[in-house]
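chain below, 396 aa
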Amino acid sequence: MYLVDALHLRILRLLRDEGAVSRAELGDRLELTRPRLLAEVERLITAGLIAEAGMAASRGGRRSTLVEIHPRLRFAAVDLGASSIDIEVVNGRLEPVATYREAADIRSGPKVILQRVNELLAKARIDGAYERLDAVGIGVPGPVSFRDGVPVSPPIMPGWDRYPVRELLAREHSCPAVVDNDVNIMAIGERHGGVAHSVDDFLFVKIGTGIGCGIHLAGTVFRGVDGCAGDIGHIQVDANGPVCSCGNAGCLEALFSGAALARDALAAARAGESPALAERLAGRLAGGEELTARDVAEGAAEGDVTCIRLIREGGRRVGGVLATLVSFANPSMIVIGGGLAQLGHVLLAEIRSVVYRRSLPLATGNLPVVLSELGGRAGVTGAAVLASDMAFEQAS
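prediction:
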């Protein structure tokens, strides 16, 4: 086992994130003497982590050799949602070489879901995406003990509590594996390649089947002692509200999430409060389908007053919770992602309005509240970053 030290991690991350760099430029940026640099680069080449990539342009003297992250490296990035599986196999630059997405019910249990993950990764290998994986990163929609690599009491994941996800994936693919909460990997993805690329302190808020918050402080994710930091979906916002999946009443998630919005949309359609929703419901009853958040988004785009009201009410609730977090953490950006980000600028405007109105001017004077740039790819991007970091730290 070849353990990579802090200097090697800096070199590997730089080449991963920026591409091929000359030895001379690498030495300048890391402030290393030429003999030290050559020795460290040679160690990484011998370890199979980086490779030479031709000659650099002349800087006035002898041309330096380019080095790059090794083109053979492959990482698997898995983003499990409540109703979907997203997988990318990426190269050392975290560029996708194979992509798979399909519907799945997380309530099917870990054996069914992870078996399907393994089947899709096996398909990628058969299709030529990789010969062997160097690491696997996976996000799951519930609290995770990052240290132990297991979900812990996840409200919407029956059968997953303390299931050895990391251990099983590592054994199946003969490589290191890392497990994190889905919102954390989305925050990492947005920091790596999205709107928060140059931001060290920000909140990533996922609004989908559930609601969670990735807390990125001082350039790294804050997970808390037991891995459940940012679980804002279970903050109580109405003591008299509906019972949440966690067993408590009036949680934010119970009042505004994908399931809650679908529930409220169905009630509005049946009560005749929304012509747009009633029309959509009537067209689906024969097929046994009900309404979704997308129906609300489409109705709002058509100007349906009830759809707009449902979105604004949800935005006000989310904004109220975020205003408290802004006063507490003083982030420099808030990024909104997840499936309900499709509700667009009606939702975003309401969240902004509440955050700016209820937080101190000092905390919001330079606080952008924006939609995710990566959208559905935020999770797999973050999982790939985590997988590559794990591979670099445990390189063999």
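The chain has a mean pLDDT of 93. The longest strand covers residues 84-91.
thats it, cya
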